[in-house]
Amino acid sequence: MTYRVCFVCTGNICRSPMAESVFRARTAEAGLDGRVEVDSAGTGGWHEGDGADPRTVAVLESAGYESDHRARQFHASWFARLDLVIALDSGHLAALRRLAPTPEDAAKIRLLRSYDPAAGDDLDVPDPYYGGMDGFEECLEMVEAASSGLLTAVQQNVEGAAV
Fold first, then answer.
1. Which residues fall in a coiled-coil region (predicted)?
2. Sheet containing 84-87: order of strands
3. Which of 3, 10, 20, 127 has the highest Cβ tally under 10 A?
4. Residues 95-130: pLDDT tens digits?
5. 127 is known as an active-site residue
């Protein structure tokens, strides 16, 4: 059985494709290829069909990640096939909870930084879109820091389902 994770930000061109690339690499390193499917989407469809922001691509590639991506909008019907929906900030969390058809679907939604013990109460990954490269680099640091804890949680679910 495949465990499905979808990262969600606003337009699906900055934060969520970054998180998707990083987490896909983490799952591959952990030997979970074929057992975990990683995807991303936006709460809005403004950028549907577009590639990731060039600054996202540059930061990912300089850190050794792949960055093939086409933006798309998250739809409520997706909850039925997803195991975990990861919001990049509290605004996305609220939007996704409004979209969730059932309480069970709403329970699948988590903030990415909730998987980073060092994040404390600051669980939002700030939107780097209107700033410079330093914002994208900071975003990558936050995504990488949270990905370890997220990987541990996903591994526990995948290994628990295999038993």
1. none
2. 36-42, 3-9, 84-87, 109-111
3. 20
4. 999 999 999 999 999 999 999 999 999 999 999 999
5. yes
Catalytic one among 14, 15, 89, 116? 15
Catalytic residue chosen out of the listed positions 35, 72, 97, 127: 127
What is the C-alpha to C-alpha distance for residues 40 and 12, in angstroms, rounded to an integer? 7
Q: Which of 9, 14, 24, 113 is catalytic?
A: 9
pLDDT at 162 > cutoff 70: no
pLDDT at site 161:
67
Residue 39 annotated among the catalytic residues of the structure: no
- pTM, to two decimals: 0.97
Sequential DSSP letters for the chain: --EEEEEEESSSSSHHHHHHHHHHHHHHHTT-TTTEEEEEEESS-TTTT----HHHHHHHHHTT--------B--GGGGGG-SEEEESSHHHHHHHHHH-SSHHHHTTEEEGGGG-GGGTT-------TTS-HHHHHHHHHHHHHHHHHHHHHHHHHHHHHH-
Q: How many residues does the chain have?
A: 163
> Please, which pLDDT band fits residue 1 given cuts at 50, 70 and 90?
confident
The type of residue at 64 is G
